[in-house]
Task: structure prediction
Amino acid sequence: MAEIEAKTGGSGPGSIRVRLLAIALLPMFVVLPILLVVTIARWEDKFDALLTSKVNGDLTIAHQYLSRILENTGEHLQSLAGSVAFLEAANSDNGTLSRFLADSQQRLGLDFLLVIDRQGRVIGTSLTTGRPTVSTDWPVRISAFSGKASTAIDVMGPHELEAISADLADRAQVSLVPTPNAAPTDRTVENRGMIVHSASPVYLPDMGESILVGGILLNRNLVFIDTINDLVYREASLPEDSRGTATLFLDDVRVSTNVRLFEDTRALGTRVSEVVRNAVLGKGQTWLDSAFVVNDWYVSAYEPISDSHGRRVGMLYVGFLEAPFTRAKTETLLGILVAFLVVTIVTVPIFLRWARAIFKPLERMTATIEKVEAGDLGARTGLGRARDEIGIVAAHLDHLLDQLQQRDAELRAWNDELNNRVSERTRDLELANRQLEATTKQLIMSEKLAAIGEITAGVAHEINNPIAVMQGNLEVVRSVIGEAANDVATELRLIDEQIHRVSQIVMKLLQFAKPEEYAGYVERHTVAEVITDCLPLVHHLLNRAEITIVRDDQATRLILMNRTELQQVLVNLIVNALHAMPNGGTLRLVSRDEERAGRWGIAIDVVDDGVGIPNDVIGKIFDPFFTTKRRDGTGLGLSISQTLVNRQGGSLSVVSSPGKGTVFTIWLPEAS
Result:
């Protein structure tokens, strides 16, 4: 191998192989990726600049609409102040003027109209509530008293709003919602109102120097903000999965917005991030960048809003969801990369084929030797007939490898035969071991159950003796006291019933211990009646939680089973279902006719929507003494229930989904 590398230059940095590959692949893997990265970076900058330009244009439209609202409000107020109808109403009684102002307010879409004199006395109002005097020191009103109509955005405190109307003050209140990244604040409510405030002088000889004041409350003004959103983000102006938003801020609080906090809840009362607040309200800048709006990232535009005093009192915002554009950008970049990879995949093999044609024979010999060293004795150079010295060497190498492979095959055949014999013996031992373990477990369980059966039978027998003595002595008491027994007939009857109850409990213990000797009698009955008799027995458990019982009695056939045993099975399953629903739920009891293996019977479903049974537990629930109720359970309920059902030729099965509920199904053959 060292001799071959010396003749061909080996595989080091100076070899022919490395140099040819470098010449073929350097443009594809170095030059083109650098050009691609530079191009993508410039395109990404242009893409972001385009989004910024769009949101800036959207903000311009919103600003123009707000300016138009101000202009229209001022023009409408000037027209109204100079109208003949206003003069006629003003020269009439105060009630006529108020009615005229109320009608004009509704027609012009205003929230209030006032006529006040220079002392601030309210001469006429469109509203039914308010104070007799209002403030006159607003720049808008000062300008109107000087004879020049004026309109501006103003922020009125709760006192000024209540002076106009208590209802206006209530509408302005917005509860603050804790918002991540917002500036710290101790306030819990925004009770100021952002008003489109307009005033116009009126010339009334009888009233002296007066002005007409009107305005629109922008707090909670959803028509105003939705109109801006519809103008800026018309249908199909954004990608299908994007959405545009608009917001009016009072200081840094959203007082009118179509941004959603939840699906049907607008984000009123949420606040802008501290970074945006400092830039727009603090420095008076226009924000054109991405911003986190309530619960997602938006390409955003914010501009400050100034009041009639020249103070920055709020912000106007428009923006659209950034995620669709980011996704489109990512998809475009991935498309470019995929195209580059496709071109690389298509062209690189061609370059490699041309380069390898020069050193192909030596490369194949080197690769063949490496494969043989790695254990592939079937590797060959595959150069075909020898046409030069290298080809002759390759042919001799293939011949030597053939002989080596033949010797290796013989050794492997002997090794495989030995391994097969060892594997067969190992499998036999493992099978015998598993059978022994299974038999041991069965013997241990049989011994436990047999011991418990003997103990239970002995205890039951010992209890039966005192029961018999008590019953006999009770009869002696009746015969001794004679007719006096009628006075305590109720008490004697209760003693008889309790003794009978104890006797039945003992009988159940004997049935579990030795079911073949104490199976009891069976009778034909309908399943619906048995279910009805079971519900009073668990009534005390139903009162502990809000459990709704739903019954669906579809079964029409009769079953042949001891009624008490069937009740025992149903009560056990119902109690387990109630325990699985500690916080309440629905318990469904369904009975229906069902055919299995060509035989008709009745299926009873006990369905709960409780916590369910884990997958690692469901296979053990019918095992004796297995329980998940560490303090309250014995682990025998389901085991006994399955024994009672199987003894009648039926089956008890379960299906459960953790977190969704459990269905226990009893199937019993029809009574013949």
User: Anything to note?
Assistant: The radius of gyration is 47 Å. The CA atoms of residues 356 and 363 lie 8 Å apart.
